């Protein structure tokens, strides 16, 4: 038995959707680099939850504090992963933020716009560039025939308008194009790229707007008539990492209870 274990970097993995993705990857046998920016206690809880789901003694789970919005932070994620795990097999770009205050587009500040764009759009674009340049410049081979993978966690806000958080919508719409661009560029390298588009998911991000979304869901905005759970997204990403979509790339996987279905 070899001690080499496929390794996935999950950004924003201390809480919510990133935590569920990390747990799902642990169940699949991956080592997981758990990235966070501030919440060390929560990140260490994700490490423990992954430990409970390990399938092999060779798997490792570590938390790394790094801001995906900065070049320094992204470099830290790569160097720490390579020094502690020795390899990178997949990257899940999950870290994301909303505006501090939801306000009408007529009052959206440039500062808020730049903040959200740097975390939600610039961060995943350039972190992916770092990982891809590692894969293309080194003599590294994927452990599994399923190959290397990149996943972008976007949102229904990639296409649905919320005029009180325009910066978020613009960032997710842009990230959807980033996913397509990398998919087109990396197909020839045998690297698959997927966009996973969550709907309304019960996490810290949606706590403040819970009463509004409770109302909308009970009024039928989500055909499956329930909140999404972080685990709903985790299991979708697990399926991608498992190699269950061998003849797909640039695909968008909606995890939204049917929200995207247009009806008349
Ligand atoms: P969350 O509960 O607010 O968690 C956000 C995570 O991102 C935390 O782990 C946080 O780390 C991390 N993070 C924030 N800024 C970061 C930065 N600059 N660098 C590195 N990590 C950073 O959010 P969530 O609901 O799980 O959302 C995860 C992703 O899903 C986001 O991209 C979000 O846009 C997307 N999404 C969410 C929903 C939803 O309804 N919840 C719907 C669609 C899409 P700390 O704990 O250290 O702060």
Please outline the helices and strands.
Layout: E1 7-10, H1 16-27, E2 31-36, H2 40-52, E3 61-65, H3 71-85, E4 90-93, H4 110-137, E5 149-153, H5 166-186, E6 192-198, H6 210-218, H7 230-241, E7 251-255
Parallel strand pairs: 1-2, 1-4, 2-3, 4-5, 5-6, 6-7
Helix pairs in contact: 1-2, 1-7, 3-4, 4-5
NADP nicotinamide-adenine-dinucleotide phosphate binds near residues 67 and 119.
Short summary of the structure?
The chain has seven helices and seven strands. With 264 residues, it is α/β, with parallel strands linked by helices. Bound molecules: NADP nicotinamide-adenine-dinucleotide phosphate (NAP).
Radius of gyration computed on alpha carbons: 18 Å
Small molecules (ligands, ions, cofactors) in the structure: NADP nicotinamide-adenine-dinucleotide phosphate
The CATH homologous superfamily? NAD(P)-binding Rossmann-like Domain
At the fold tier of CATH, the topology name is: Rossmann fold
- How many distinct domains? 1
In percent, how helical is the residue content? 40-55%
Helix/strand order = EHEHEHEHEHEHHE
Mean pLDDT level: 97
Low-confidence stretches: none
Strand content: 5-15%
CATH class: Alpha Beta
Largest sheet: 7 strands, parallel
The overall strand count is 7
Total helices: the number is 7
Side by side, the strands of the main sheet go 3-2-1-4-5-6-7
* Class per helix and strand makeup: alpha/beta
Architecture per CATH nomenclature, i.e. the level-2 architecture: 3-Layer(aba) Sandwich
Outline type: globular
């Amino acid at each position: 038995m070899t001690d080499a274990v496929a390794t996935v970097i999950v950004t924003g993995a201390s809480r919510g959707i990133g935590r569920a993705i990390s747990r799902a990857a642990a169940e699949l046998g991956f080592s997981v680099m758990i990235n966070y920016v501030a919440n060390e206690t929560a990140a260490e809880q994700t490490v423990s939850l992954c430990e409970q789901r390990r399938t092999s003694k060779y798997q490792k789970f570590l938390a790394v504090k790094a801001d995906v919005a900065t070049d320094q932070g992204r470099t830290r994620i790569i160097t720490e992963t390579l020094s502690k795990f020795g390899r990178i097999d997949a990257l899940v770009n999950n870290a994301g933020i909303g505006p501090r205050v939801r306000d009408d587009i007529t009052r959206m500040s440039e500062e808020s716009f730049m903040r959200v764009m740097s975390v939600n759009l610039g961060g995943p674009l350039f972190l992916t560039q770092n990982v891809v340049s590692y894969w293309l410049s080194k003599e590294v081979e994927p452990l599994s025939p399923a190959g290397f993978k990149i996943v972008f966690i976007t949102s229904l806000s990639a296409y649905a308008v919320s005029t009180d958080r325009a910066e978020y919508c613009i960032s997710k719409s842009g990230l959807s194009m980033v996913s397509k661009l990398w998919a087109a560029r990396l197909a020839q390298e045998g690297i698959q790229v997927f966009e996973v588009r969550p709907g309304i998911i019960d996490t810290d991000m949606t706590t403040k707007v819970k009463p509004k979304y409770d109302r909308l869901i009970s009024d039928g905005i989500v055909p499956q008539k329930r909140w999404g759970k972080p685990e709903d997204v985790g299991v979708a990403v697990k399926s991608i990492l498992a190699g269950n979509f061998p003849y797909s790339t640039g695909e968008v996987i909606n995890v939204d209870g049917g929200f995207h279905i247009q009806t008349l």
